[in-house]
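Record 1 of the preview.
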Amino acid sequence: MHTIEIVHRTRYEYAEPVTLGEYRLMFRPRDSHDLRLLHTDLAISPAGNIRWIHDAFGNSIAIASFTEPAQVLEFVSTIRLEHFETPAEVPPIEAYAVKLPFSYAAEEAPDLARYIERQYPDPNAALSLWAKEFLESEGGDTFATLSRMCAAIHETFTYNQRFEHGTQPPATTLEQRNGTCRDFALLMMESARSLGLAARFVTGYLYDPALDGAPGVASEPAHPHAWMEVYLPGAGWMEFDPTNGIVGTDRLIRVAVARDSEQAMPIKGSFTGPPGACVNTIVDVQVRTLPPAAPVPPRTASLSAVA
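->
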């Protein structure tokens, strides 16, 4: 278990004052058995009106609106949390789901249906055929198939930074064999869906404790990241990070989940101004390891029964 603090700063600079529209911010993780949220803070400049909602997936969303034009827009999110390691062993998948293909149980199928539904065109079924290649060597073992697919993207595709908005179509990523972490997550998500599996998109942070404070290491210990999850009966939602070829790890700090990549953007908003008004975008993530939080003393209460 690690206790860490992440400060995520995003700054937009404009050539002249612009009119800011509404911004949807997804910085606040949800408490779970593998993540305990200790503290959050969100600072916005210029000051605006903020309201909080839960979206259709249960993510915590801050909606910021502004009344005055601005030449600089800055968001600073601070989160402090305890993050617990995922066990390394293969999860206990239900017997009926160990091999592909399988059908989800009747009580879960209606809720998973939209996560199985494919969202993007697949010209000439190239994506489907590529996904089926991973079925052959071990006769369709579900977990092994997904693990091989995750490793193949990591080993045979080239990671490229791209600053344009959005995620490229999975067919494009497959054809070009390169992309960003968002592109690779979307590619594996749609590939898993082509095999009849429920999959969803995840955004958050990749955290490497080995780089935290290590002397002579230039790499940042944490940065914004995207990966995907597949629902495996008995094991639940399992994490796969095809960019790094890792499965279920304490290095992944989940913030938001969604059915599609566009629904899990950390920052989504707009401004009104002349073409080329945004002259600079700065994203900086700082992390530090903290001593473990003091345990919360147990509460005592007296109970009385009323006849």
